[in-house]
Amino acid sequence: MKKNSVIIFIIATVMVFSYGSAALNAASRNWAAKVNYETDIAALLQAKCTPCHFPDKGGRKKRLDTYASASGQIIEILRRIQLNLNKKGFMPDKRVKLSDSTIAIFKQWQTDGLLEK
Questions:
Q1: Domain spans of the chain, in order of start
Q2: Are the C-beta atoms of 115 and 104 separated by less than 8 Å?
Q3: How far apart are CA 88 and CA 99, in angstroms?
Q4: Of 30, 47, 49, 54, which residue is the least packed, with the fewest Cβ within 10 Å?
Q5: Cα(35)–Cα(94) distance, rounded to whole angstroms?
Q6: Within 10 Å of residue 102's Cβ, how many Cβ atoms?
Q7: Which residues lie below 8 Å from residue 54, measured CB to CB, with a gap of 6+?
Q8: φ, ψ of residue 115 in degrees (nearest 5)
């Protein structure tokens, strides 16, 4: 009888901690700050896409200097920054490929709903 009680207690403890861990992970995802244009994307575009996509810097390519222009072109931005260096349309042109972590920020922005602020 005592052996069965110990086994039941262990199983119940494992189940409680397993459920609690899953609930904690879900809660932390909900509380994590979402990627937005103003705090995350604008600075990346400025650093990686200037001057070509910024008219005030002399660029003549499709604009990426505003929220509306960047969010409206996110699919094309993602497609082009994920191309290999030798593929036509690769961006940023004549520069090194963006890091996987930088590309992930753009993907997360899209996943989060292309938030502006």
A1: 1-32, 37-111
A2: no
A3: 19
A4: 30
A5: 27
A6: 13
A7: 46, 63, 64, 65
A8: -65, 140
* Residue labelled with tokens 């890091």: 99
The Cα–Cα gap between 21 and 13 comes to 12
Alpha-carbon Rg for the chain in angstroms: 23
- Six-digit token pair at 37? 């244009």
Rounded Cα distance between 65 and 82, Å, is: 20
Q: How many CB atoms lie within 10 A of CB 17?
A: 10
In the DSSP assignment, the letter for residue 109 is H
Per-residue tokens: 97: 């490929």
The token pair at 19 is 């459920």
Q: Which of 57, 37, 44, 23 is nearest to 91 (CA)?
A: 44
| Maximum CA extent, the chain | 82
